[in-house]
Amino acid sequence: MADAAEGCYAGNTLVFTRRPANSDSLKRYEGGLAQKIWWWNGRKEAQPLTADYKGKSRQPMCGAARIYFLSNRDSIMNVWSMNMEGRDLQQHTRHPDFDIRGASIFVNTALKTETIVY
Q: 4-117 has which CATH code?
């Protein structure tokens, strides 16, 4: 957990990135320092959720049933999500020219809605 940087809780599970965000000038970086999203339930070793992608996946945001995050899977940093097991990948924004630099989620449990602002 010493390398944990950005994160959120999905119930009792911590969803996090290892290593802080590297410079925005490293566009489409796919090296060993690219952020990946992991989960840790406190009982066993942390497990990667986005190990299938060589680029950046960062800033996890825990929704009611999905984990939202920023990723450059389409060459530009956009909002993506996956289910709690790291599958069922969905792209939510498609900005063609500029990266989303930061995002935040608001989960309204009473209305069962999720709003992401960036």
A: 2.120.10.60
